[in-house]
Amino acid sequence: MIVEMKGIEKVFSHVHALKGVDFSVRRGEVHALLGENGAGKSTLIKVLTGVYPKDGGEIVFDGKPVEIESRDDAFKLGIAVIFQEFSLIPTLSVTQNILLGKEKQKFGVLRKKAMRKEVAELIERFDFPLNPDDIIETLSVAQKQMVEILKALSTNARLIVMDEPTASLSAKESEMLYRIIAQLRDRGVSIIYISHRLEEVFALSDRITVLRDGHLVGVIEHDDIVPDKVVNMMIGKELSDATASRNLSVSSARTVLEVKNLSSLGKYENVSFEVKAGEVVVLTGLVGSGRTEVLRSIFSADRYDSGEILFEGKKLPKSTAKVIDRGFGLIPEDRRTQGFVPLLSVEKNVASTNYDTLSKHGFVLRRRERELGQRAVKIVDLRPANPAVPVGNLSGGNQQKAVLAKWLTRDLKVILVDEPTVGIDIGAKDEIYNFIEGLAKEGVAVLLVSSDIAEVLRVAHRIIVMKEGRIIHEFHEGVATQADILLAASGIRAERKEA
Amino acid sequence: MQKKWLARLYKNRQLVILVLLCLVFAVLLPRKFLTIGNFRNILYAISLQGIMICGATFPVLLAGIDRTVSGSAALAGAVCCTTIVSHGFSTGGTLLGVLLGIGVGLLSGVFHGLVLSRFNIPAFLLTLATSEILYGLVQTVTGNQLINVMNAKLFNLVGSSRILGVPVPVYILLACFLFTYVMLNHTVYGRHLYCVGGNREAAKLSGINVRKIIIVAYVVSGVMGALSGLVLSSMNQQASAGQAKGYENDVLAAIVVGGVSLRGGAGTIQGAMFGALLIGILTNGLQLLGVASVYHDLIKGLIIIAAVAVDMYSSHKMSGLKRGSALRRMFRRHRHESQLKAGA
What we know:
By secondary structure, chain A is an alpha/beta fold. In chain A, the strands form seven sheets. In chain A, strands 6-9-10-3-11-12 form a six-stranded mixed β-sheet, with helices on both faces. Chain A has a six-stranded mixed β-sheet with strand order 19-22-23-16-24-25, sandwiched between helices. The model of chain A is unreliable at 238-243 and 494-499 (pLDDT under 50). In chain A, strand 4 and strand 5 form a beta hairpin. Chain B has two domains: 33-285, ABC transporter involved in vitamin B12 uptake, BtuC, CATH 1.10.3470; 292-316 and 324-344. Chain B has helices at residues 2-11, 13-28, 36-61, 69-86, 91-118, 123-142, 153-160, 168-186, 188-198, 200-205, 210-236, 247-257, 269-289, 293-319, 326-343; strands spanning 147-148, 162-163, 166-167, 238-239. A two-stranded antiparallel sheet of chain B has the order 1-4. In chain B, strands 2-3 form a two-stranded antiparallel sheet. Chain B is globular, with a radius of gyration of 22 Å. Chain B starts with a helix and ends with a helix. Residues 318-344 of chain B have low confidence and may be disordered. The interface between A and B is medium-sized, with 38 and 32 residues.
């Protein structure tokens, strides 16, 4: 065993987050940590890496009992964390970042050549598509992640924690990461892997530890991994079937939103499509294909250079406030930085889009505001069901539900949804799909951006595939399968099946 | 049971601190500290900075800062007094002077708001620069001389008279406080202000007119700064070139001590006012004790450090963000040690 955590306890002011959890990782294994949001995964990792002090239990690292009180302590033991947000300095080069804090020097002068050589060798050893002189901010997300991994390896990390490493990677980049993980394992590095993408967890893991509500549910050996069983362990209930293909059809309802030849220099070109009342149209494609940009332009969050956006036949105004006034809503790509105000309560966040009905002559109608908060909590089944909790203190799934509530409390005509279930557990995912489907049934036009194929197949009425800023394929009718969409998105099957 | 009691104390800790401080001084200074006259002095002394605080809290809540409150005050005082003098101390001249003075604050606020809402410049740098410009203008307006308005009876009434035993500037402070309290707690503008301060991008995507919110915040700050400058001139019955210089530091100190986060989006005007009262009472008590003024600044500095530490610690607890800070570890070690001690 490289690390053994025994009977770990963690109590926050009002939440008992870890209740005597045992967790151990062998040398040279990929060990997945599974559980719904709020199950205690992140807390356990934060205890292991010294971000939170533990309130009970013990940690044995490499056979010796240890106290990990800070990130530094963890680092010295050889525990590295690759977080979703990177800790790289954007303006420095790959070499400078990897050797940050351990620069080679002679008489106080940097030995730049020697440093560059060391990093070049490291890159070569793992065969990463990186140049030691690249500046971090010019790299793709996947490349930044590789730099993070190299940084960990350069300190001889023996245990690497990867928290949702593929969340913002394309399918191809993810493949590359899987190869890297296998390579690391073969070299004796242990990996703790946290991901909501179950397929990859099942494919990669040597063992899986499942947590639920701060308890250890069980540890599953590689040979015993049966997807249904694992999922049931995680959520303790049966899940509605995820379909592998979907029947599509064109709706005959009236057109609500029409986008005509929309172009924005360097982002997307000549994009045209329409969304009808009660329809869920999915914009899919790889990350960076221009989907989010189109969505933001419709919402007037960004400008566009040419083209037209029509709502119920009339030109849509170019002001977010006016667009919202017409009955639009947006669930943005990154809820933490764009979706809510973390310090403010659920009530105030939900109210932020609703003051047109919650005020008189500029004064807030306090009672109505409070009632709306109560109503919002019920509509989205928020946990805890308390509108006074700051949204920043909620789990990922509940944060997203709070963002949904900002719009569900309004009279919606069109909702624009961008990657709504990234980093959210399956249970909450299902609920969010139900909300999207519910809105469509009520006649709301839904435009959804998603890279998650299972998600696309679950909710789409029609599918539009974008690549490098252009629409390259549309699935209107008939059966679309996972393979169809993947092939279209990668541009292999762009010419076929044009409807 | 005991815990609940402690929690309530903690919730009202600002009030508790004030009461404790008053008790300490009451014991140290029997008959001198706990008198109506002395409390009148304290309130009179903090009224100027208090009025500024009511305005300057707006930009701070937006994670901005307005270092020109003192500059606006100086220029407003200078413009007003010059106008009064040039109109021969007439009532009309006085009214015009007051309007022009307020106008100065308004213009300064509009300028800051327009620039800061459009360009991504640190508010600290911009207002540092404009503060210099404002004081330069004050020198031009006053010709670097004292502008004496001793003969402007009506104008000086504000600074020198009392209603029901309370000095008029204290009423003005109260009015400003009420204005800000209502703005922040009962208007849509206030709600939006906290949203923009807490997450500008999310506010924008919720349809909030971020630019408008920013502009209004700096306008309120500029106008309240100017207003306090007018009160100051009325108290002194004159305007001088260096008037109110350095007040901006006291104002920001009080706001920070009052628990308004410099990162924006969190804090209350009641808190900021507590900061002003704390510093005001402390200064007053130390003066009465005969402590040299050098030590006043020293103690003020220590209080600010303590306030910043509390802010960092509580915001870490609130947001759960990863702020790798030595301070956090210090707190944690401290807790470990106290637990060990409790165990032993």
